[in-house]
C-alpha cells in the first residue's frame, strides 16, 4: 500500500504533464532515456517482444514508445487523474493495458520480462524500500529500467543559483511544492545500493548532465540540437554522468 506521505498527482495531472513534457527538459529527458534503453528493448528476428510493466507510468509517454516497438505493456500508476490522460494518449495502442495500482501493491511482478520505474522513487517516503521490493518480486533474469531525481545534481543546481541557506537546511522546505520531488537520491549511493542487494548494473546514464546548468537558459531552446549531441556524447562518461539531473540505471536480477 502507498503511505500517506507518498506523493500522488491527483488534482494536478494536467499541470504535471505540461511541466514535465511541455518543456525542453522533458523533451531531452525522453530522448536520452529512449536512447539509453535502446540496446535492451530492440526487437528483431532473433529478439522477441517483451512483456513490460511500467510502474508509475504517468501519462503514458514511455509506454507509447515501448508499445510502438512491439512490446506488450501494462502501465500502472497510483493517480487516477494521471491515468485519465494516459488512457487518452494510449488509445491507439492495442498492446497497452492500464491499471490503477500503487507500486507496493503489485503482486505479479514476476510475470514480466522488463520493468520500468522512472521518476517514481523521489516521490516516495521510503525509496530504498521500493528498490528492495522491486528486486524481491522480479524474476531472475528480468531487467529493471530505473531512473530517479539526482540529489547531488540538485545540490549543484542550487549552489549555482546561490541558494546556500536552502542547501544548509538539507534542501528541505517547510511548505513542500507539489511538483518538487520530496526525496531525491544521491546517484552513486543509489547505484551502490542496487548492487549490494543483488542487482547487476548493465548501464549507467546521466540524464540532463548539462541542460540545467547552462548560464544562458535561452540556449536550452535555441541550441537544443547541439545540446542533445553534447548530452549524448558524455552522459555515460565520468564525471559528467554523475551530474545528470536524473540518473538512469539498467539493472538485471
TrEMBL record:
Catalytic activity reported: 5-carboxymethoxyuridine(34) in tRNA + S-adenosyl-L-methionine = 5-methoxycarbonylmethoxyuridine(34) in tRNA + S-adenosyl-L-homocysteine
Family: Belongs to the class I-like SAM-binding methyltransferase superfamily. CmoM family.
GO biological process, one term: methylation
Function: Catalyzes the methylation of 5-carboxymethoxyuridine (cmo5U) to form 5-methoxycarbonylmethoxyuridine (mcmo5U) at position 34 in tRNAs.
EC number: 2.1.1.-
Keywords assigned: Methyltransferase, S-adenosyl-L-methionine, Transferase, tRNA processing
InterPro entries: Cmo5U_methylTrfase (IPR033664), SAM-dependent_MTases_sf (IPR029063)
Gene3D superfamilies: Vaccinia Virus protein VP39
Keyword S-adenosyl-L-methionine carried by entry: yes
Domain of life: Bacteria
Protein's UniProt name: tRNA 5-carboxymethoxyuridine methyltransferase
MF terms in GO: tRNA (5-carboxymethoxyuridine(34)-5-O)-methyltransferase activity
Keyword rRNA-binding included in the entry's annotation: no
Sequence positions that bind S-adenosyl-L-methionine: 29, 56-57, 77, 118
Amino acid at each position: 500500500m502507498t503511505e500517506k506521505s507518498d506523493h500522488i498527482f491527483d488534482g494536478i495531472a494536467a499541470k504535471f504533464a505540461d511541466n514535465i513534457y511541455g518543456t525542453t527538459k522533458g523533451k531531452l529527458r525522453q530522448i536520452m532515456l529512449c536512447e539509453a534503453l535502446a540496446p535492451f528493448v530492440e526487437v528483431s528476428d532473433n529478439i522477441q517482444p517483451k512483456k513490460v510493466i511500467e510502474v508509475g507510468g504517468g501519462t503514458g509517454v514511455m509506454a507509447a514508445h515501448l508499445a510502438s516497438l512491439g512490446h506488450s505493456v501494462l502501465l500502472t500508476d497510483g493517480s487516477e487523474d494521471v491515468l485519465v490522460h494516459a488512457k487518452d494518449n494510449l488509445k491507439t495502442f492495442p498492446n497497452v493495458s492500464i491499471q490503477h495500482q500503487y507500486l507496493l501493491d503489485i503482486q505479479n511482478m514476476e510475470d514480466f520480462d522488463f520493468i520500468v520505474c522512472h521518476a517514481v522513487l523521489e516521490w516516495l517516503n521510503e525509496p530504498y524500500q521500493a528498490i528492495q521490493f522491486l528486486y524481491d518480486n522480479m524474476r531472475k533474469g528480468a531487467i529493471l529500467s530505473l531512473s530517479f531525481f539526482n540529489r547531488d545534481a540538485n545540490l549543484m543546481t542550487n549552489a549555482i543559483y546561490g541558494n546556500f541557506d536552502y542547501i544548509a537546511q538539507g534542501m528541505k522546505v517547510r511548505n513542500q511544492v507539489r511538483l518538487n520531488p520530496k526525496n531525491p537520491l544521491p546517484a552513486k549511493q543509489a547505484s551502490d545500493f542496487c548492487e549490494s542487494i543483488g542487482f547487476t548494473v548493465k548501464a549507467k546514464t546521466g540524464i540532463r548532465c548539462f541542460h540545467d546548468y547552462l548560464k544562458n537558459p535561452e540556449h536550452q531552446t535555441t541550441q537544443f540540437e547541439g545540446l542533445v549531441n553534447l548530452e549524448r556524447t558524455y552522459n555515460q562518461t565520468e564525471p559528467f554522468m554523475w551530474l545528470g539531473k536524473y540518473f538512469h540505471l539498467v539493472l538485471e536480477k
